[in-house]
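User: Sequence recovery, please. Input:
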């Protein structure tokens, strides 16, 4: 585990942070195990960050390498910004889980393996020629292997379950051991099991028995060396109400809060796609806040229905991932031409085409900024973390309604699925931005494409007396909104739509330096979920007196007005991003700065060490 000093007279080890990864088959309940361990960790007051890593197959063949599901959590008594580079503890429920994950484990780290699953058939599926628990190949790590399957069957025997059903409880046995190792309270898990299986009390009791048996194993077994209890005090935190959220949940709450602040009902039109589907699931439970959800027959119908809702005076919202965003492209152009407010959430995943459905990537920036036919500008903003997704959702609603434009909000698979503690904000601290639909014409007559100081046209509900107007995808006449194919009119309307979006920069403020100072030898500029590893890497390097700073963008388009001058104040600029250099290209184009790429497209987030290495090389 992390560097530790034994407390005098106490067998517990005091540590600052620990990284634990649970890994097994997609049917082994690793995400559920990790989620419940996260709950107990949050209740203990530790700061934390998680990384659920799903297999791409819905249910891959059992025991295969491509069917491994993992859940990693980094938790501690200090501020946590990432899910951790390397696990201190790996819980491997079968040979495939061990093979896929063991090389990520820290040297000297602890492997807890279910030896009951290391039979010849499972070893063959994982491409092991010999049993790694017995052949010495794991010598650089600590190894604790025992038959979790048999111990689980013994624990749940009194409940009369069949073998297959009984073995479903072994994730709870493993969770019980983990709760003992890190001195966690079992009661919240017991309460959750009783609630989840209220209609099947025998299943709840069996799982509770497995949980308690795993905990007791840690308490009573004579385990010399590998397993010790570790004490992690609560992390310092500002006073207030905290809860654990993942990115999809925080973003959903932010959309609802934004709609409330705009004094609008909200319509969400969506179509299921990984990893965006969770937003539809969360919003469907919030009907009492004026939210209507609609699962459409396809992606085009989903965005078209949301545009229709905006035309009717409601806040239209739609969501998808890269392939679905591509299908929505023509309709985005319609929303830009009609100048209606619309929020489009893109939970990015690995591409192109179907790509890597369950893996994270940042490869849709070009698609967000440029990916429509014609000159079709649209504001683009990006969330840096699960809790930041709440703030970004509110900001997307504000921009959409104040500037009468669609807005794209970028998250990714990591943000959507990862969880962290969130200080629930006091909504009284936010400035509301209520929408006023036009109800009567101006003194000089109704101009459906007339403009206010933000170049936003009026928002008129259909059926409003004396305010009838044309709407659609064909070019509109300046002010009148009549169909107009004239060359001068098209030039002027194209310029207006461009200037309106660029004008968003007037309301977003200057770009700040997250860590470090303006000007110096090196700046790392990132966006989205790279925030955590960049911030930690820059912090570590600054502690070594390296001249490096961290800048992180929320506003991808338009960019803050001072960004060009800020970037030119550094000798060197590096852009870490999980693509082949998309933000780097935009920065070079806009500011003529020699930004250098640091790219990763493995489906996995950056590690802190990877970015530290790039900083050291740039400054050497």
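Assistant: Recovered sequence (620 residues):
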């Amino acid at each position: 585990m992390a560097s530790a000093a034994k407390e005098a007279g106490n067998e517990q080890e005091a540590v600052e942070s620990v990284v634990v990864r649970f890994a097994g088959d997609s049917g082994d309940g690793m995400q559920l195990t990790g989620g419940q361990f996260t709950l107990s960790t949050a209740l203990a007051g530790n700061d934390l960050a998680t990384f659920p890593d799903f297999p791409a197959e819905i249910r891959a063949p059992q025991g295969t390498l491509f069917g491994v599901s993992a859940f990693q959590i980094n938790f501690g008594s200090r501020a946590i910004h990432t899910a951790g580079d390397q696990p201190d503890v790996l819980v491997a429920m079968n040979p495939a889980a061990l093979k896929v994950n063991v090389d990520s484990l820290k040297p000297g780290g602890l492997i807890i393996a279910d030896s009951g699953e290391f039979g010849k058939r499972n070893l063959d599926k994982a491409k092991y020629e010999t049993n790694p628990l017995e052949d010495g190949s794991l010598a650089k790590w600590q190894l604790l292997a025992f038959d979790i399957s048999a111990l689980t069957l013994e624990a749940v025997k009194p409940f009369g379950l069949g073998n297959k059903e009984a073995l479903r409880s072994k994730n709870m046995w493993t969770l019980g051991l983990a709760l003992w190792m890190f001195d966690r309270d079992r009661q919240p898990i017991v309460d959750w099991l009783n609630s989840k299986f209220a209609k099947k009390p025998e299943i709840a009791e069996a799982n509770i028995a497995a949980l308690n048996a795993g905990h007791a194993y840690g308490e009573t077994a004579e385990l010399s060396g590998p397993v010790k209890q570790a004490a992690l005090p609560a992390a310092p935190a500002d006073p207030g109400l905290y809860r654990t959220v993942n990115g999809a949940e925080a973003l959903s709450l932010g959309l609802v809060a934004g709609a409330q602040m705009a004094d609008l009902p909200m319509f969400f039109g969506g179509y299921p796609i990984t990893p965006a589907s969770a937003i539809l699931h969360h919003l469907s439970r919030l009907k009492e806040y004026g939210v209507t959800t609609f699962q459409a027959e396809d992606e085009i119908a989903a965005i078209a229905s949301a545009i229709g809702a905006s035309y009717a005076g409601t806040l239209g919202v739609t969501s998808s991932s890269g392939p679905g965003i591509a299908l929505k492209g023509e309709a985005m152009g319609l929303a830009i031409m009609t100048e209606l407010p619309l929020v489009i959430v893109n939970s990015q995943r690995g591409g192109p085409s179907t790509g890597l459905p369950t893996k994270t990537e940042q490869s849709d920036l070009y698609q967000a900024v440029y990916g429509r036919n014609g000159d079709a500008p649209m504001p683009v903003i990006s969330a840096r973390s699960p809790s930041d997704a709440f703030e970004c959702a509110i900001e997307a609603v504000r921009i959409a309604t104040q500037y009468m434009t669609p807005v794209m909000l970028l998250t990714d698979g990591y943000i959507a699925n990862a969880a962290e503690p969130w200080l629930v904000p006091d909504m009284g601290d936010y400035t509301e931005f209520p929408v006023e639909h036009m109800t009567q014409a101006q003194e000089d007559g109704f101009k459906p494409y007339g403009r206010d100081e933000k170049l936003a046209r009026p928002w008129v509900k259909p059926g409003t007396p004396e305010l009838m107007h044309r709407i659609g995808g064909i070019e509109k006449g300046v002010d009148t909104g009549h169909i107009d194919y004239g060359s001068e009119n098209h030039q002027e309307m194209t310029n207006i739509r461009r200037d309106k979006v660029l004008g968003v920069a007037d309301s977003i403020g200057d770009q700040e330096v997250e860590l470090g100072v303006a000007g110096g030898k090196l700046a790392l500029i990132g966006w989205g979920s790279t925030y955590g590893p960049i911030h930690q890497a820059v912090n570590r390097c600054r502690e070594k007196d390296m001249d490096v700073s961290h800048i992180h963008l929320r506003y991808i388009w338009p960019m803050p007005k001072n960004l060009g001058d800020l970037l030119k104040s550094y000798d060197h600029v590096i852009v870490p991003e999980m693509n082949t250099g998309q933000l780097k290209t935009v920065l070079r184009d806009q500011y003529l700065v020699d930004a250098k790429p640091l790219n990763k497209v493995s489906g996995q987030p950056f590690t802190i060490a990877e970015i530290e290495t790039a900083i050291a090389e740039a400054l050497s």
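The chain has 21 helices and 23 strands.
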